[in-house]
């Protein structure tokens, strides 16, 4: 069949208009969507798949009809011990805790020869007088960095207990320059004691923490490095820089003492 040129022109006109209109709508929507990208707005973001953004969930400490007791947070099974709440060692376990055997073995294997390295304790349970790591310039630098991040807020950059948070803390923050923290013959003055406190913190007799532990943030190596830095601060505070290792002495050449806020 042969179309007249006129007719085919006319029938071509309709799809062209539709195509143009569609292209216009497409362009407009592309522009408006690209307009969302990178825009700053006080309004809530547009949600194209709201079910993926707002999946149903319980917020902590809220009520619900779903569980019979009305609590959205589920109480742990009776006898559950929170992870890390107490060390899995024989003293903490009842005599018949056979289930614990593989865990105790795993712990022993992990600690291996270097129990003291990870616990700061001698075999007889007393704290190590001297740290079990070699003192290097890198270790001192690392210890200073970690101390300034995790301890200085309370204990002060100089270890004098006068950090910004420490001055306002609910319990008084001690200065490391007291004899009882310097004298390795004192139980509170050993490297192992400083290590233990840094990792586990200190509790009130009523069970509340006076100082939080930093074992979650500091590895054993990190913690020994922090202990080494505390020793540097103590010696620097005594104004006896000659007794410092050469590398550490350069840290304090200007003035001999680290000052409050002197982070580096
Ligand atoms: C949030 C504040 C805070 C931070 C951060 C903090 N401490 Fe303490 N620290 C305290 C307080 C408070 C005490 C005193 C607690 C007491 O007397 O019961 C204390 C006590 C100590 C003691 C003395 C323990 C003793 O036997 O008397 C050592 C050692 C110590 N902190 C080391 C550290 C180290 C190392 C860090 C960093 C890893 C650190 N602290 C971070 C608040 C803090």
Oligomer: single chain
* End-to-end distance: 91 Å
Can you count the beta strands? Answer: 2
- State the CATH architecture of the domain at 137-251: Orthogonal Bundle
Bound molecule kinds, no repeats? heme C
Strand content: under 5%
Low-confidence stretches: 1-11, 254-264
Average pLDDT confidence is: 82
Number of helices: 10
- Using the alpha-carbon principal axes, give the shape: extended
Helix percent band: 40-55%
- Please write the string of helix (H) and strand (E) elements: HHHHHHHHEEHH
Task: Give the C-level CATH assignment of the domain at 137-251.
Answer: Mainly Alpha
CATH topology of the domain at 137-251: Cytochrome Bc1 Complex, Chain D, domain 2
Return the structural class.
Answer: mainly alpha
Report strand order across the widest sheet: 1-2
In CATH terms, the superfamily of the domain at 137-251 is Cytochrome c-like domain
Report on the architecture of this protein.
The chain is mainly α and 264 residues long. The chain has a domain of 115 residues: Cytochrome Bc1 Complex, Chain D, domain 2 (Orthogonal Bundle). It contains 10 helices and 2 strands. The chain has a two-stranded antiparallel sheet. A hairpin with a 5-residue loop joins strand 1 and strand 2. Helix 5 crosses helix 9 and helix 8 packs across helix 9. The N terminus and C terminus are likely disordered. The structure holds heme C (HEC). The site of heme C has 20 residues, from helix 6, helix 8 and strand 2.
